[in-house]
Amino acid sequence: MGQLWIGKKRYRRVLARFAEVEDLPEEQLNSLLVERLLDLKKRLTREVEASTDKDGLFFSEVLRLFLSHVEANRDKLTVRQYRQQLSRYQKIVGDYRIRLHSSKFTDQLVLSLRRAGLGDHSCNSYLRAVRALLNWAWAEGHILAAIKVKSVRASKPLPKVFSQDELLTLRQYLEEGWHETRRRRFLVLLRAWWFFRYTGMRGSELLTLKWDNVYPDRLELRSTAIWKVKGRRDAIIPIAKPLKAFLSSQDLKGEKFVLDDGTGKPNYASAHGLMQSMKKALEILQIKVNPLHSFRSTVATELLAGEVSNPVQVQKLLRHQSIQTTMSYLNTDHIQQVDLVNKLGNTGGNSGGKKSEESGKASIRLAYSRKSKADC
Fold first, then answer.
1. With CB atoms counted within 10 Å of each terminal CB, which end of the chain scores lower, N or C?
2. Cβ–Cβ < 8 Å for 83, 74
3. Residues 305-346 pLDDT 10s
C-alpha cells in the first residue's frame, strides 16, 4: 500500500499485488514501488487540482472522457479518427486546462499541420475534431461557455467522378482479367463494379453484404454484432435491371458473401483492402479517381444532372442524413449545359413565348409612334 498526503487529506492506494512482486529481488522491488508511488502522487495531485481549481480539468482528462463517450455512441473508425487527431493536437499545443482554451491553440495547430504538408481540408478535419470535443465539454459543464472554433478558408474541390468511357474501360479490364486468369481478385472487383455502379453503396457495406440479403428485386443492409450500418439504420436498396441480369449469371456455389473468397469468407479483411485492390486496377488503366467513393459521386452526379428533379430521392438512395451532403457529391463539370441553355427560350411554353414576342413588338411600335408624334 502507498500512503500520500496532499493538502490536508490522506490518500491510500495499492501499489502492487503480492503475486506480482513476490519473486522480485529487494532492490528491484524498492525501485518499482518508488516509481509507482511517484506516478501515483503525480496523478492524484492532478485529480485534486482539477476538482478544486477554478480552471477545471486538463485537456488530457477531457479527452479521455470524450473518447469514452464517442466509443459508446459511434463506430470504431470514428473513435480511431478522433483519437488520432486529438492526440496529435495535444502533442502540438501541450496539456492545458480546458477552460483556458483560446484561438492561439488552434492557430498553433494549423501552423504545425501546414508545416507538415497538410492542406486546408485536412486542417479543417482536425479543427472539426477539436470543435466536437469543446462542444461536448460545454454540454457536460466542463467549460462555462461555448467556444467557437473557426475553420480555415478553403476552396471546396469538385468530387471526382468516372466518365462513361472510364467505367466501360474498367469493366472490360476486370472481365478480361477474370476470363483469362480465373483469379478471384478480378471476379470480386467485377462484382464490386456492378454493385457500386448501380447502387452507390459504400465499400464497407458491400464488403459485409451476404447473398442471403440479396433478393431478386432488392438488397437489404442489416447491422450485425460486428458491423453496423452507417447511422445505425438498416436500409433496403432496389436492384436495377442491369445489375439483376449480371447477378443471374453468377455461380454462387459455396459462397456466403458477395465478395467471397470462395470458402464462405470475405475476400478482404477490411474496406481498405478492397480500396487498395481497386486502386491497383485504376492505376494500371491510368484512371485518376477515388477507388471507391467516386462510384457514389458518379451515381449522384448522373441522377442529379439527369431526369431526377428531386434531390431528396438521391439523398434517400445514398442514405445521407443531410441534403447538403448529397448535393456536395454533384460534379458540375459533368453537367451538359448546351441543352440547358437551349431550354431558356421555351421556359414559358410555345404559346407563352409567342405572346411575349408579340407583346414586345407592340411595345416597340407604341413607343416609336409616341416619339414620332412628339417630334411633329
1. C
2. no
3. 776 768 888 888 888 888 888 888 887 776 665 555 555 555
On whether both 91 and 184 belong to a single domain, the answer is: no
Domains contained in the chain, number: 3
Residue 157, classed as helix, strand or coil, is: coil
Report how far residue 297's alpha carbon sits from residue 333's, in angstroms, rounded to the nearest whole number: 12
Average pLDDT score, the chain: 84
Do residues 206 and 260 touch, judged by C-beta distance below 8 A? no
Any idea which residue has 485492390 for its cell? 277
Set of cell numbers at residue 190: 467485377
Enter the DSSP assignment of 292: T
Find all residues with CB under 8 Å of 190, minimum gap 6, and list them.
171, 174, 175, 178
Cβ(136)–Cβ(66) below 8 Å: yes
Q: Give bridge partners of residue 238 from the DSSP assignment.
A: 218
- Give the N- to C-terminal CA distance of the chain in Å, as an integer: 117
Helix (H) or strand (E) holding 2: strand 2-6
Do 232 and 99 reside in the same domain of the chain? Answer: no
Domain match, 226 and 316 both: yes
- Cell 432496389, residue? 238
User: Cβ distance 56 to 47 under 8 Å?
Assistant: no
**DSSP percent split of the chain into helix, strand, coil, nearest 5:** 60, 5, 30
CA dist 160 to 92, 257, 291, 312, Å?
33, 29, 10, 21
321 with 223, same domain: the answer is yes
In a domain, 370, yes or no: no
pLDDT in tens, 139-168: 888 888 889 999 887 666 778 899 999 999
CATH number at residue 308: 1.10.443.10
Strands 218-221 vs 235-238: parallel, antiparallel or unpaired: antiparallel
Residue with cell 475476400: 267
Sign of CA dihedral 237, 243, 245, 246: negative
